[in-house]
Write a structure and sequence with these properties.
2 domains, 5 helices, mainly alpha, transmembrane
Length: 142
């Protein structure tokens, strides 16, 4: 009797099949895409709530300093250097569009486009801070 129980408990087949199904379902591209979408929506909702609460609290956020833009560009250059260091040590690129073997002109355009997007995002954030301070300025004490 005990021998039969150990045979049932020790049988790997049912557990492995169930586990394989669960992992293949949870790691499917569709589920991973949905999870990524949910995280992105959560992040956007959290940022919106924080922005609304900050506006209602009548706080004054100063716009970003111009020095921040220089720091962001330095950070972008260092990150790009790390990508090429990874290629030299690992043999592959983290991003397909940075492959210099394809066309160097395209790589330069991609890098400049990323820098332009960084400038645009910086100016959007700077503008949002300016608008917020213009419309939701602190209420003076009377």
């Amino acid at each position: 009797m005990a021998k039969d129980a150990w045979a049932l408990i020790g049988a790997p087949r049912p557990f492995n099949q169930g586990f394989k199904f669960v992992t293949s379902f949870l790691l499917s591209p569709l589920v991973l895409g949905v999870i990524s979408l949910l995280f992105a929506l959560y992040t956007l909702a959290a940022l919106l709530v924080i922005f609304i609460l900050a506006a209602k609290a009548h706080t004054a956020n100063s716009p970003q300093l111009w020095l921040h833009l220089i720091f962001l560009l330095i950070l972008l250059i260092v990150y790009l250097a790390v990508v090429y260091i990874e290629h030299a040590t690992q043999g592959g690129y983290a991003y397909f569009f940075l492959d210099l073997a394809e066309e160097k002109g395209k790589v330069a355009i991609y890098v400049l486009a990323i820098a332009v997007v960084e400038f645009i995002i910086f100016f959007i954030v700077k503008g949002i801070c300016w608008l917020k301070n213009s419309f939701f300025s602190p209420i003076p004490d009377t």
